Amino acid sequence: MKTIKTYENQNVVILGLAKSGLAASKLLHRLGANVTVTDRTEPEEEVKRELEKEGISSVFGEHPLSLLDNAYMVVKNPGIPYRIPFLQEALKREIPVITEVELSYELSEAPIIGITGSNGKTTTTTLIYEILAAAQKEPLIAGNIGTVSCEVGAKAEKDQVIVTELSSFQLMGIREYKPKIAVLLNIFDAHLDYHSSKEEYVEAKFNLFSHQDEEDYAVINADDPVISANLGSIKSKVVPFSRHKELKEGAYLSGNKLMFQEEEIISWDDVLLKGEHNIENVLAAIATCKLYGASTEAIVSVLKTFTGVKHRMQYVTNIHGRAFYNDSKATNILATKAALSGFKENVILLAGGLDRGNGFEDLEDALSCVKTLVTFGETAPKLEETAKNVGIQTIKCVDNVEKAVAAAYKLSEEGDVILLSPACASWDQFKTFEERGDMFINCVHKLK
């Protein structure tokens, strides 16, 4: 950890406790700041005792504006919008408002690789981490996917590298954050209930590049029109990736080959991770890891074995020639369409869940590879109707995921893919999509 005296005897307000707030408060306290935590929700007694033990002040149940008197800085929980009165008053008083990822950069002796985008952040971050680990680059993983960024930054050493997943919420709260390699995967309409406009959302994403210079790299999706329209603001070396264009200066798909510059890295058929959308995630990871000095051998070894992030097109196992995939994170039609696009084999699709009132007509053009549909949950009748519309002959309705796995296996043949990609939220039968995915995994392993 770098030795910094910036915060000694300074009054710092931590707005919103949670995991990141607790980590930031303890770290700043150790750096000599006078820290006060404020949260509208009372934390558990154990957390209160931890704060008291550290000597950290706290105010719960409200955010009194008096906390801003003589405040040096506010560190806010990323999920708290800037429009709340407390933050508006802080900005009016010109008090800096940051998120804890800024602290990570200030303290870290290691370079940082930052990954953002509307979709694919977790998969790409994990893949980059795994490749760099295989290449013996001593990576650490941080951000939304792992340990709180400032905790990792405080512990990182010079010969390591921090691979960080970053949201637009976090990126709105940076001042000097400067990744050695910044990765922007894509930009879709997202979180517009948090951001005041699409323009603000795009600006937040491009904050990732705002402090880079010509010694740094920007790995960007050349197929994304919003990204392409904003490249003029990037000062670092742009390294593109593309699924549709052969870009000899970056990573691209040529026929069925994944390339970096003019080097063939691997055939897409040999990559274990499935889903057409994952081609872009893999290309971004290849470009990033090659720029950081990973060998082609390390990249290939990971791509041939990487099963994906849990519940996101996760390869589970193969039983008697049937490959099982857990895509429980697919809580909408678009996600299930993306999952199905990755398979040439016959698919037995397990789908269903919470009925939000929509139909499934938009799923029809993606069902050409589906030979059997097994439905469950509130939306089962609608999904069955959709399957009949496209001529799927075998349709089975069951009560739950457990019975769906058993039915799918019974109806399958060697060479089939059995895919849980529900196209629906899980709340009719489960608390979370993770719980649904875990049920699927457990039932699959019971088949053995």
From TrEMBL:
Its main location: cytoplasm. It comes from the Bacteria. It is found in: Cytoplasm. InterPro entries: Mur-like_cat_sf, Mur_ligase_C, Mur_ligase_C_dom_sf, Mur_ligase_cen, MurD. Residues 115-288 form the Mur ligase central domain. Signal peptide: none annotated. It holds the Pfam family Mur_ligase_M. Pathway: Cell wall biogenesis; peptidoglycan biosynthesis. Keywords: ATP-binding, Cell cycle, Cell division, Cell shape, Cell wall biogenesis/degradation, Cytoplasm, Ligase, Nucleotide-binding, Peptidoglycan synthesis. ATP binds at G117, S118, N119, G120, K121, T122, T123. Its EC number is 6.3.2.9. Belongs to the MurCDEF family. This is UDP-N-acetylmuramoylalanine--D-glutamate ligase. It comes from Priestia filamentosa. The gene is murD.
